[in-house]
Amino acid sequence: MSASRRCLCCVKYLMFVFNLIFWLGGCGLFGVGVWLSFTQSEFSSLPLSFPSLSAANLLLVAGGVTMVTGFLGCLGALKEQRCLLMTFFVILLLLVLTEVTLTLVLHIFHNELDTKAQDDLKEGMKNYLTDEGLKKSWDNVQKMFKCCGVTNKTDWYLVVNGTLPFSCCSGGMDQCVEGWIEPCYQKARQWLLDNILSVLVFGVCIGIVQILALIFSLLMYCQILRAEKYLD
Question: Residue by residue, what is the 3-state secondary structure of the chain?
Fold first, then answer.
């Protein structure tokens, strides 16, 4: 076996291993997204700007795209096809750029995004008395997190004629007057941060694997091109 062919085989199997890890990582992200969707199913009638619902959808999309990209990379490595490798490289590069852009946008504009999400939730609250699904979702949120309103319990005053929903208080009360002190948006956001830290660490590891997969796919493409020229 020539040195060029041995080098190609080495890069091929390294790329396959990294893409297999990448694919498994995508399965993990998708699985966490599914778990988060099931745990938040009681809140499904709330706007998607609710922290845990938006995170679940983001993980489902990211996991699905990662799985497809990882599979494409594995196939390209095994088949040694330049077309597949270049397609994989372009898709993965776009994915990495999108992730970096999204991370920067979330970091720079997090206050504006929080405000927009809270405004959407407050707007949705106006249908509390007429939309049974929305009413059930809000009641479930407030009972689960022991919170009241989006940013404050006074958010409900314009919705339910100066009073509070029964779900703002502990059970067994004829009328809810005081209500829980903590706002639901911050409570749900903190719950998400407490439970998703390991997912973020996992995401950083996947990012490192993505960079390595980019390098190996480019190396393998160049090695195949060189081998084809050598054969010619």
Answer: CCHHHHHHHHHHHHHHHHHHHHHHHHHHHHHHHHHHHHHCHHHCCCCCCCHHHHHHHHHHHHHHHHHHHHHHHHHHHHHCCHHHHHHHHHHHHHHHHHHHHHHHHHHHCHHHHHHHHHHHHHHHHCCCCCCHHHHHHHHHHHHHHCCCCCCCHHHHCCCCCCCCCHHHCCCCCCCCCCCCCCCHHHHHHHHHHHHHHHHHHHHHHHHHHHHHHHHHHHHHHHHHHHHHHHHC
Residue type at position 47: P
pLDDT-derived band at 149, boundaries 50, 70, 90: confident
Round to whole Å and give the CA distance between 197 and 38: 19
Residue type, 61: V
Predicted pLDDT of residue 156: 87
pLDDT at 3: 60
Distance between CA 3 and CA 8 in Å, rounded?
Answer: 9
Greater confidence, 9 or 5?
9
Mean of pLDDT values over 15-35: 82
**Are the beta carbons of 134 and 167 closer than 8 angstroms?**
no
Task: Look at residue 2 and tell me whether its pLDDT is greater than 70.
Answer: no
CA gap 37, 35 in Å, rounded: 5
**Cβ–Cβ under 8 Å, residues 138 and 128:** yes
**Residues 11 and 216: beta-carbon distance below 8 Å:** yes
